[in-house]
Amino acid sequence: MLLNFIKVDFRTKILVDKYLELISVGVKPSEILVLVQNSTLKKQFSDKVLEKISVNAIEKLNIHSFFSIVYNTLIENWCFLENAIPGDKHYILPNLVGLEVSQFLLKDILKKVEVKGYNSKKSLLHQIFRRYSLIVQNNLTNEEVKERSKILKESFAEDAEIIIKRLLSSTLKSRSLDYLRQTLIFNHVYKHTDYFKNIKYLLVDDADEMTPVCFDFIKYLKPQLKDWIICFDSLGSSRCGYLSADTSIECKLRTVFEEDVVSDYKTLPHGEGMCEDAQSLSNIFPQGEIIFSNILENKHERLENFTLTSLSKRAEILDYTIEKIQKLFKKNVLPKDITIITPLQDDMLHFTLRENLKCNLLFLSGSEKLIDNQLVKASLNILKLMLGLEISEMDLRVILADYVGIPIKYCHKILEVYKQSGLLPAMKLDFYDSNYQKFYEAFESGKEKVENGKCKLSNAVYEMFYKVVTYVDETKINKFNFFIKQLKDFESVLGWKNVIERANEIIVQIENSIIAENPSSTLDIKDEDLIVATPQKIIDNKISTKYQFWLDVSHSDWVKNDTGPLYNAWVMQADWTKDEYTIEDDIFLSKQKTARILRKLLLLAKNHIWACSSLFDPTGAENLGGIEDYLAGGDDNEIIEEKKVFKIIPRDDQKPVLEYKKGSMAISAVPGAGKTTILLALIIKLINRGVVPTNIFVLTYMDSAARNFRERIKNMCPNSNTLPNISTIHGLALKILKENSNYERLNLSSDFDICDDTQRMRIIKGIVGKFTKTEMEEFDRAISVLKLQEGNIDTPSSDKKIEKFKTFFKEYQAQLREGNLIDYDDILIMSVKLLEQNPDILEYYQNICEYIIEDEAQDSSGVQQKLIGLLSGKHKNLIRCGDINQAITTTFSNADVEGFRAFIKNADTTVEMNHSQRCTQDVMTLANNLVDFGNGILPKAFFTSYMQGVKGKNPESENAIYSKIFENSFAERNFVLKEIKNILTRNKDATIGILLRNNFQVANWTHFINDAGLKTITRSESLGQKGVFNTIYSILKFIQNPFDNEVLVSTYETLSDLGFYRQRLQLEIRNSETPFIEKDGDDIESTSLSQFLWDMQYWLNSSTLPLEELVIRIGLFYYTSDIEKSNVYLIATLVKRLNASGKFDLTLQRLEELSKKPSLSGFKFFSEEEDKDAAKGKVQIMTLHKSKGDEFEYVFLPEMAEKNLSIDVNQAKLKASSLFMEDVKSFNPSYKRKSELELKEFNSEESLRLLYVAVTRAQKKLFITTYTKGKGWQNKDIVLAPSIIFSGVL
Fold first, then answer.
1. Angle, CA of 1036, 1040 and 1041, to the nearest 5°
2. Residue-wise over 930-952: b if at least 16 C-beta within 10 A, else e?
3. Which of 299, 618, 971, 1234 is deepest in the core (most CB within 10 A)?
4. Which of 267-276, 886-895, 919-928 reaches the highest mean pLDDT?
5. What's 616's DSSP letter?
6. DSSP character for 611?
7. Phi and psi dihedrals of 960, rounded to 5?
8. Could you please report the per-residue DSSP string of 1120-1187?
9. DSSP string for 880-893
10. By percentage, how much of the chain surpasses pLDDT 70?
11. What residues does 948 pair with on adjacent strands?
12. List of residues 6+ apart from 802 with CB closer than 8 A
């Protein structure tokens, strides 16, 4: 019987009842084969049979997952197999190993075989293994693989075939058989032996998740079967794609078993008494249909008992989920009735849930690292010590604290001796001596046995563990045993002496091991257990609960890629019949897989599902993928607020924007003209006119602007299930690369990564060559200049510096390829290249880009304009909005102001929005005078557009402009401070901005204002100017050197300055003759200092935690607001990336270097100023550049010397780097090189615009000041010339 049922419990009941029926009529268990999906389901099935069986004694049950039957078959038929393998050496038993051994063997093969044109060895190993798995799971012959290679037009097929053949040969020669290799051999066994001749009855559950290789086995059994029940879900196959579940299983089963499928429960003999199941089926079936149609037919039908909540930050998702679960607990809902489902299983999730939910959390994922278990980490480090390999002091701390059980504060002597000698010392301790002596004796004994060849490494580590470690919970023991099994696998395959010789390589392999089968043992869920799992783990283990929480539904990890340069999971399916693979195929198949997964999740929820999305991912970047668009549910009544209907009465200068119908439109808008509001109004008008929201693309150049747009449009359209595509232009370009496996066309693998500043710094530092620090900094910037100018690196040059740069650039590019990375410039360049070279992809995006709205168009570079031009090529509905007078990035970016000038000139419609209600009349007059002054000395400086007020709307203030030149900085600073205090005395909620030219000035003024007792917000992307970073970093520095009192003093000063501890108590730490950290807090007289000591001892004892978790713990201990918590998580993610090598000291060094950079690509921190209420009454200090897009009631522009903001071309000085960048730009023969005078004019033009931006931030009053006598190099007295605006404009 073939049964198509969607309710899992119903299916299992039918199969168990059938099994019991067969046993009751005398059928032997050995004649019945039961196939289920995995070991957990195998145990559950066996338990149900044994619970109900009425026979007194029974032989072994023949219940298996496919891979367990493969494993057992090989063991029991090994003699037959060994005799069939040619060779002189014979094995009594095979080495049935994990994938780690196979990957190790594959690495050796890849050292000898070159895949021409493929650069990343790391990515290559991953790609080959995926290809190998698809070939095995789909039971493909060599000819079938070659046919598929032709369809895909693969360039690496022959090399991949050679590598896989060598891997098969190597694994067979050493009898090293992972589950894939076992499967290949299993095919031979069942076809050439009578091992399965007794099987007369077949019961299969979840046949929809079956792979073709498993189906071929069932097909082989069919002629000998007397009866069968095969249960499946025709819309199941959630494991399709890379995991190779067969989506055509229903058709194949009908053909092989020659019978119709039963889909109606009433036709079953068990129909009576199934009313409850029938009712349940009728309730849940429509939900599955809805999600399928929503995804595959682009519908937005609402799901019943489903709540979708859209939030801003991921921290808010976790807080929301915790609050909901705590309310369920109060209603006596058991933890086992709740599941949390997300593909993002990181320390942020783990820690936050553990800290806030009082239950036993079981985390299930397929990506847990073995090294994350501290006992395994300690054991690996003990292994290194036994073999004379160096370990770090932090690794030794893991051994002493987590393995031996000695608090770090008592380990000073051991650590000191090890630092000097590199050896574990034989010594007595004042505290915990017995622990140390037991460990030391066991270590020396094991080491001696290994050195004398009397003991395998695995045995030495195993024996030592059980001698030294006391209590360990079951989960940790299972992972330790998994580690020992891996070590034994290597010894079995390579020989234990070879393992010792290659120990370093093997340890690295184990350190990178993933526990794919999580849980590694069968899953037994108790009342107090709450499951946190990936979607596939929930489905695979059939975890059905009353309540589900779907987290991070806007993150791209919900939708997995199934293709790469060396594999295509769809074309590699056994039933692929087409002779081509198109972008339409990729889109449909990817959507179909997503639909199958979400449908199965829906069917496992009994009462209600809460789904949560966030605008930003854990790195602060915009979420552009995920499944949010497919989910339509009710609003959360507990958090929904009454939304105001968005209405706008446009001014006369705004009306043409709302009258727009089609074509190109250029909008020039002065500061405060309301361009964001009018663009939002235009978007809503387009939607109301019937334009599909997802066909409107809104592009910005700053993440903060994208955040603002997305949050405002979401609030304005509360009832809309879909929103426009709002992102930065880099975000859209990256989406184009990643969507629909487009990256394949560029020979990128699916796991390519973006080279953020952490990786870029590592690459640049690692480039060999004699480069000075200055050259390294110049060359780093020149990389972007060369790429975006589309220069030819092979352009001949006799300049030595240029030749050095060419060497540098080529090495940088090679490192990117080797690391499977692309940088931020590549994102734009590659997206343009992809569209230009692939007409089908271009057509797809041109079709959906019906309207493109670009904000801040004056900042658009040439390549960005090219990308926008390509996307708008079909509909030609392009709206570009900007202000040339606010183009302030041209000197350090590739912004093309002239491109926007040309667009304004040639657009179908041109709109000038020149009215503003931001500033007083005095400020607007000053801004207009600045435009006239600028154009008088530099005609290209400004676009002639004058600010005008809005009747009755502008602030009014007498004497709104104040300017003064002070004698010295002391006088200037005291004046500014006095004015700020006066302002706050009159209005404690006033908004105040201090705008400066350079980052070092921001740091100096921040210290000055803080020391005066006022609260500040530092608007900076620099890590070193963020309090949350300084808190975490100062404690990490202490952890690095806990016994150095000066380091502890530094930590104390940082934390007390930030307000966490009472100030000026550090003298007692400094005067301590012994390490202060070793003291007892009860002996400290000052309660504040005592609390500081207890806290530091706590952090020291926590220092063996994974570094990412430690950072989260520190951050959340000191910070509690949503914004601060989000930044803690960002820093934890940054630290995790930096700590890839696991070297604590190196990670801190890199953190220190990054903290000095003015900004950090790849990580977008949240700022207090985003909360307007939080900014009231605080002094916001930032650079002139950072002020763009904001406004303050009172603005101070201090230190306005000509040196700081060079406007006078005659006084301007060119940096040598400016001339070098011109040389690099000249690599493009079409570039017109600028002369030194033109460069000076170019810089002065931008300085004028920068001043214009600063001036127009002021709403009520503007203070412009400077001083004339200052200190220069080596503290020498210097005279500073005031900016020419004091005489020319003010």
1. 120
2. bbebbbebbeebbbebebbbeee
3. 618
4. 919-928
5. B
6. E
7. -70, -15
8. -SHHHHHHHHHHHHHHHHHGGG--HHHHHHHHHHHHTSS--TT-----GGGSHHHHTTSEEEEETGGG
9. EEE-GGG---TTTS
10. 95
11. 915
12. 1223, 1224
What gap in Å lies between CA 1117 and CA 1032, rounded to an integer?
10
Tell me the per-residue pLDDT of 1017-1038, one tens digit each, with 9 for 90 and over. 887 778 888 899 999 999 999 9
Tell me the two tokens of residue 742. Answer: 């487009």
Name which of 430, 398, 433, 396 is nearest 416 in CA terms.
396
pLDDT surpasses 70 at 644: no
Please name the helix (run of DSSP H) or strand (run of DSSP E) that holds residue 898, with its range, or none.
helix 897-906
What does DSSP assign to residue 404?
I
Mean pLDDT of 425-445: 95
Cα distance between residue 795 and residue 803, in whole Å: 10
pLDDT tens-digit series, residues 728-765: 899 899 999 988 889 888 888 877 888 988 888 888 88
Q: DSSP character for 962? A: E
In this structure, what token pair is assigned to residue 1245? 């033009």
Percent of the chain that is helix, strand, coil (3-state, to 5)? 55, 10, 35
Under 8 Å between Cβ of 913 and 654: yes
Using CA atoms, how far apart are residues 116 and 105, in angstroms rounded to an integer? 20
Q: How confident is the model at residue 180 (pLDDT cuts 50, 70, 90)?
A: very high
Residue range 21-37: mean pLDDT, rounded: 94
DSSP string, 717-777: -TT-S---EEEEHHHHHHHHHHGGGGGGGGT--TT-EE--HHHHHHHHHH--S---HHHHH
Q: Which residue has the tokens 């903001």?
A: 1205
Q: Biggest alpha carbon distance in the chain?
A: 108
Confidence at residue 790, expressed as pLDDT on a 0 to 100 scale: 87
pLDDT > 50? residue 281: no
Q: Is 1261 helix (H, G, I), strand (E, B) or coil?
A: strand
The C-alpha atoms of residue 852 and residue 879 are separated, in whole angstroms, by 6
Q: Buried b vs exposed e over 606-633: b needs ≥16 C-beta within 10 Å?
A: bebbbbbbbbbbbbbbbbbbbbbbbbbb
pLDDT at position 519 is 43
Q: Does position 643 have pLDDT exceeding 50, yes or no?
A: no
Q: What is the rounded CA–CA span in Å between residue 180 and residue 137?
A: 8
Report d(CA 1029, CA 1027) in Å as an integer: 5
Q: ω into residue 86 within 30 of 0, thus cis?
A: no
Sort 413 into a burial class: Cβ within 10 Å, 0-12 / 13-18 / 19+. middle
Buried b (16+ CB within 10 A) or exposed e, 449-463: bbeeeebbbbbbbbe
How far from the centroid of its chain's Cα atoms is residue 1282's Cα?
47
CA 1129 to chain centre: 11
- The whole-angstrom separation of Cα 541 and Cα 521 is 12
Are residues 1024 and 1156 in contact, defined by beta-carbon separation less than 8 angstroms? yes
Write phi, then psi, for 45 (nearest 5 degrees). Answer: -65, -45
Lowest mean per-residue pLDDT among 624-628, 1062-1066, 1126-1130, 1150-1154: 624-628
Residue 385 neighbours by CB under 8 Å, 6+ apart: 391, 424, 443, 447
For all residues of the chain together, what is the average pLDDT?
90
Cβ(418)–Cβ(427) below 8 Å: no
Give yes or no for residue 116 having a pLDDT over 90: no
Burial of 1172 (0-12, 13-18, 19+ CB in 10 A): exposed
Considering only 214-228, 563-577, 759-773, 915-929, which range has the smallest mean pLDDT? 759-773
The type of residue at 1058 is: L
First to last CA, the chain: 92
